[in-house]
Write a structure and sequence with these properties.
disordered N terminus; alpha+beta; about 110 residues; Immunoglobulin-like; single chain; 5 strands; 2 helices
Length: about 110
């Protein structure tokens, strides 16, 4: 997949972890019109806006995490690279992403 834009203030550490696991080969061979689709799982999959790759193969986008209680503590984030034909040559998934409380503190999470 693509590598994250490390200069983005809107990018969370969880998205950096997700995207840095991406394959450099997929980045090198990704067609110019490729797009990335981010989906977040709280109690179901929620699609985020599609992201166009920059000419250098990087991308950045704020993701929106919701949920209350235990759902707040166990998000999954899936990133898929789509080519111009709509095929997905690369996918990555990160488990147990935690959304902070509005005041920035970590929530109490149970396993």
């Amino acid at each position: 997949m693509a590598r994250p834009d490390t200069n983005s203030a809107s990018e969370s550490s969880s998205s950096q972890e997700l995207l840095t696991k991406a394959s450099e080969k997929d980045l090198e061979t990704a067609p110019r019109d490729s797009r990335v689709r981010i989906e977040v799982f709280t109690n179901r999959w929620y699609s985020q806006p599609e992201i166009a790759l920059r000419p250098d193969g990087s991308f950045s986008e704020a993701i929106y995490l919701g949920g209350q209680g235990n759902e707040q503590c166990h998000h999954m984030i899936r990133a898929r690279l789509y080519d111009e034909q709509g095929d997905a040559p690369a996918t990555d998934l990160v488990y147990n992403v935690v959304r902070a409380n509005p005041d920035g503190r970590a929530p109490r999470c149970s396993n």
